[in-house]
Amino acid sequence: MSSTLFTPGAITMLAGPCSIEDVEQMETVGATLENLGLHWIRGGAFKPRTSPYSFQGLGEEGLAMMQDVGNLHHLKTLTEVMSSSAIPLIDAYADAIQIGTRNMSNFSLLRDVGIAAAKSHKPVLFKRGMSATIDEWLSACEYITMGGSSDVMLCERGLRTFETSTRFTLDISAVPVIHSRSLLPICVDVSHPAGTAIFVPDLAKAAVAAGADAIMIEIHPNPAKAKSDGPQQLTMVQFEKLMGELRQIAAAIGKEIV
Ligand code: PEP
Ligand code: MN
Known about the structure:
The chain is an alpha/beta fold.
């Protein structure tokens, strides 16, 4: 198993629920991912919610749940860090650190994550700000890498535009642009731009075809009961079907999905 988010010649699947909610949920997701031969599970324990009254995540309890499920199903774990003070906790439980769209310009957090990730040799998934240009994103990324952490993967996750048919406008062009401008690999999160599960499969196929190095997809055993982002999460059955389709597209461009 690769210790990094990026495997040359492959597309890394980063799937899991929006929020870690309970053991049963994580166990169902973990077993599905292992059965599909995948190596990573994602889940939020500290959630950047638009409203402070919405579910904020289970914190350390959630991180422990995901770590246990990861150990049981041979999966590495990815979770978001929202503040510098939470870095030691995230570092203790997770195999990779995500920086979310709302923190792309939180330069002190980026510096601190860069230093911590360099020490722990953990990869960082760095999401694009929802209103940031590619220049601003790449420049911000240097706050992470200057701390000595070079194992960074960029992640396009959709932009705020005038369009309201989707939750965010997925900038699929970011994939070839990043490949032409940077040596860093790029992930495409297809769930947050979709906002609705029915759009997720087509966006995921587009991301594979465009040359993404990783795909992020939110999945949940019972999306209707999800504590965050329910409408956009795929069920296990929907995800298994999509994986079969994505593997065919990946094979057509000489890649496998891991
Ligand atoms: C997430 O991946 O859980 C998330 C909150 O994404 P974003 O930062 O892109 O909104
Ligand atoms: Mn989410």
